[in-house]
Amino acid sequence: MKLPVNNTCPCGSLQKYKKCCKVFHDKIKLPKTALELMKSRFCAFAAENADYIIFTTHENNSDFTSDIKSWKEDILSFSRNTNFEKLEILDFLEENSEDTESFVTFKATLKQYNNDISFTEKSRFLKENGKWLYVDGQFID
């Protein structure tokens, strides 16, 4: 589903999508923090924006592949078959401008075919050439 620009942003900001994560998805701005990147990625999954997920994934991520077509199809399949109900930020480290690594712990409330597939994850991000990228995450019980 394409996300209407006047809908509330799925990232939890309570702002309209066009005033929130859309500026990142359209590459008008880069996220300044790992937290902004994390929230914009959750929103990108909800908006079926596979290109943004690929653009913001570090090459050391286990999903990273040079087969962009297949990777994009996998992301879109997941996004189209999942309801992204809620994002809760549980913990994050405020970065300073010199930081190149950061962590965000969040809970994603998701449903797939009426099954609860929610999870809590501590995500790791690296900043390279001024751009934050998602590297990996550890699930938390």
UniProtKB/TrEMBL annotation:
Residues 33-137 form the YchJ-like middle NTF2-like domain. Coiled coil: none annotated. InterPro entries: NTF2-like_dom_sf, SEC_C_motif, YchJ-like_M. SUPFAM superfamilies: NTF2-like, Sec-C motif. It holds the Pfam family YchJ_M-like. PANTHER family: ADENYLATE CYCLASE-ASSOCIATED CAP C-TERMINAL DOMAIN-CONTAINING PROTEIN, UPF0225 PROTEIN SCO1677. This is YchJ family protein (SEC-C domain). It comes from Arcobacter acticola.
